[in-house]
Amino acid sequence: MTNSFTCPRPLLRHTLAAGAAALTLCWPMLASAQALRPATQLGNAAAAPANTAARPADFIVAVVNSEPITNNELRAHVLRTEQQISQQGAAMPPRDILTRQVLEQLIQEKIQVQMAQDSGIKIDDEAVQVAEQNVARQNQVSVTDLRKRLAQDGIPLAQFRDELRSQLLQARLRERELDARVKVSEADIDQFLRDQRGGAERAPQEVNLAQVLIAVPEQATEAQVAALQARATRVLQRAKSGEDFAALVLEFSDAPKSGQLGGQMGLRSADRYPQLFVDATQNLRVGEVSAIVRSGAGFHVLKVVERAEAGLTITQSHARHILLRPSAQLSENAALSRLAEMRQRLLTGKADFATLARESSQDGSAAQGGDLGWVGPGQFVPEFEEAMDRLAVNEISPPLVSRFGVHLIQMLERRKVQLSDKEQRELARNLVREKKQDEAFLTWTQDLRARAYVELRDAPQ
Q1: Percentage of the chain with pLDDT > 70?
Q2: Angle at which helices 157-179 and 95-118 cross, to 10°
Q3: How far apart are CA 312 and CA 251, in angstroms?
Q4: What is the pLDDT of residues 403-437, one digit of tens each?
Q5: pTM of the predicted model as reported, rounded to 2 decimal places
Q6: How many CA atoms lie within 13 A of 10 on its CB side?
Q7: What residues contact residue 389 under an 8 Å CB cut-off, 6+ apart?
Q8: Distance between CA atoms of residues 35 and 40, nearest Å
Q9: Cα→Cα distances 311→153, 308, 419, Å
Q10: C-alpha–C-alpha distance, residues 112 and 114, integer Å
Q11: Which residue in 248, 225, 246, 226 sits closest to 236, CA to CA?
Q12: Residue 318: its H or E element
């Protein structure tokens, strides 16, 4: 088994989520391990594995403010970057171009670490310890095994921990500096949605309406019609005052079976509703009630229950899992072995997943046989969700490690569901925020670079 390392993502990749920094970890991962993201994502300044080949005498290639970058330091980062590119199957750039790019990255990282230190940001040993545990989990190994592999590759533990501390410094600095710069307004979201629709003001809509129908007989007299209209007016007044619409349906509506459905007619496109209904509700928000609508059937009071843009869908997953939490009595390796044995029994038909979950799982879903219900993207921690998403229907994953423990996952089914108007706007908000964060990050790093003293010395070898 090889002990070499690899980084799962491109260098300099940067994201922020929900106002908190989440900088992609680029400390190398064990090549033999499953590529899962860590619980706390970190920055990019990572040391390379020691190179056993003969090296030239070391010298300074650049000075960043008062801190040097040596040829050996740069060369180690270049070698590791080439390893990453090769393992990702990407085209390898010429060595001189790659060296310039890696040198610029190192310069940027040193500027950020220096700024973080000068501004008083500190990373305590406990935070570094947690980061080390995250790297071990990402690589599906224990901390002890991680340290053994680092030693086999000639990487001192102190150097490894120093690099983690630098990554955390950068993460804290970027969070502090960039968080206040990124604001997403409702107008930004509206513009984004218009752009996605090709400039159209409104995309095709589907709507779910609920109604109270006050039926008017065909031969009703004027007095009867007036009395029925007054009845509809009372319904409208009570609905607008906030009374439960489903209760009003039960009390007043003459529509067939409306009491069983709360008066809802189901999510459907506008062309499947009477034009009178469309005209009366097209400018209403979800939860609002229309004025009284008169049709050949009688008087209608309509409520907008839900809106969704036709064609905008997400994939939901229905899975179940078994969770074992490592403890003093159960090591992580023992949990992995135990779940691997369970998986083999399941694959050979000698055990039932739900039964094993009820007997063994240490998660709140154990009573339901490990069933997690229907969930959309982003509802689980990344390391769990990425492993789950790779599964085919009915497939059982190998044991995997997350920040919560060790899991066995079975994918039960998937389905496409349409996004509600609220969900669409939340998705748009996240996409706009990410775009603004990338723009702010680029501007920020360019500004830092321009204000720093950088002296390029001897050409790298």
Answers
A1: 83
A2: 70
A3: 36
A4: 888 999 999 999 988 777 787 888 888 888 878 88
A5: 0.48
A6: 7
A7: 317
A8: 15
A9: 52, 9, 9
A10: 5
A11: 248
A12: strand 313-324
Give the pair of three-digit tokens for residue 214.
């006050």
Say if residues 51 and 145 touch (Cβ distance below 8 Å): no
pLDDT tops 90 at residue 256:
no
DSSP summary character for residue 284: P
Copy the structure tokens of residue 232.
């509809």
| Neighbouring-strand partners of residue 455 | 63
Per the CB < 8 A criterion, the answer to whether 48 and 80 are in contact is yes
Q: CA 24, 29, 33 angle in degrees (round to 5)?
A: 125
Q: Are 29 and 4 in contact (CB under 8 A)?
A: no
Tally of residues, the chain: 461
Dig out the tokens for 244 from the structure: 């439960």
Q: d(Cα 75, Cα 162) in Å, to the nearest integer? A: 19
454-456 sheet: strands from edge to edge: 67-70, 60-64, 454-456
Residue 354, token pair as written in the block: 């739900």
Integer Cα distance of 248 and 128 in angstroms: 60
The DSSP symbol for 181 reads T
Report the sign of the C-alpha dihedral through residues 97, 101, 102, 103, in that order. positive
DSSP codes of every residue in 65-83: TTEEEEHHHHHHHHHHHHH
CA 168 vs. chain centroid, Å, equals 21
Cα dihedral 366/369/373/375 (nearest 10) = 60
How confident is the model over 122-170, as pLDDT tens digits? 888 888 888 888 788 777 678 888 898 888 878 889 888 988 998 888 8
Tokens at residue 370, please?
Answer: 């490990």
The structure tokens listed for 457 are 């010395």
